[in-house]
Design a protein that fits this description.
Keywords: Cell membrane, Membrane, Transmembrane, Transmembrane helix, Transport. Helix content is 83%, strand content 0%. The chain has 227 residues and is mostly helical. The chain has one domain (25-224): MetI-like fold. The longest helix is centred in the first third of the chain and has 49 residues, at 2-50.
């Protein structure tokens, strides 16, 4: 038994630095791409909702164009997207390999995903609340800021949680093309070097990371949901 503990301790000492670095790279990729994805995707979702037929800022032509772009973005598998935008990534970052380079396809993949989730969240707001605000003379911007977004906040937070969980899985896929993070460790050390232990540990760490994100998201939803 003592020998088993010694072997486990030696394994941890040898691989702890690698796993900690990979975890940080995963958090970096997910965090940065998530922030940019939300910064662009949330306003885009609001525009999609408000420019639809009967919306606050009805503009069917703009809605159709944006909707088509979002649909194209959502329809491309992430691995295909990473390869397809290699020239753009290289132009922007200077390379298409590495953790920072992986943020580019992660962000581009997140934006349409977020936009559709936010559009769906805003659809859940009762139309009566919007009509009541309009009858009191509220401007479209006031209705968006004081009615639509606050009322949809629990669903928006849930959408953010779903997006972050999805980005964790995307970041693991980025590891297959040298994107770094836990996925990269699982491929290079777990798969190519047939290290079953490190493969299992990386899978467990990804599961734990997803559980933490989901738990925090659920707690925030309960806190802001007063229905």
């Amino acid at each position: 038994m003592a020998m088993s503990y010694d072997v486990l301790a030696d394994w941890f000492n040898l691989n702890s630095g690698l796993l900690l670095k990979a975890t940080w790279e995963t958090l970096y990729m997910v965090g940065f791409s998530g922030i940019v994805g939300f910064a662009v995707g949330i306003p885009l979702g609001v525009v999609l909702h408000t420019t639809k037929r009967g919306g606050l800022l009805e503009n069917q032509r703009l809605n159709s164009i944006l909707g088509a772009i979002v649909n194209v973005g959502r329809s491309v598998p992430f691995l295909v997207l990473m390869v397809a935008i290699i020239p753009f990534t290289k132009l922007l970052i200077g390379t298409f390999i590495g953790t920072t380079a992986a943020i580019v396809p992660l962000t581009i993949g997140a934006i349409p995903f977020v936009a559709r989730l936010i559009e769906g969240a805003l659809l859940e707001v009762p139309s009566g609340l919007v009509e009541a605000a309009q009858s009191m003379g509220a401007t479209p911007l006031q209705i968006i800021n004081k009615v639509l977004l606050p009322e949809a906040l629990p669903t928006i937070i849930n959408s953010v949680t779903i997006t972050l969980v999805t980005l964790v899985s995307y970041s693991a896929m980025a590891g297959t093309v040298g994107g770094g993070g836990l996925g990269d460790v699982a491929i290079r050390y777990g798969f190519h070097r047939y290290d079953v232990v490190i493969m299992a540990v990386t899978v467990v760490m990804l599961i734990v990371l997803v559980q933490i994100i989901q738990s925090v998201g659920d707690a925030l939803v309960r806190k802001v949901d007063h229905r």
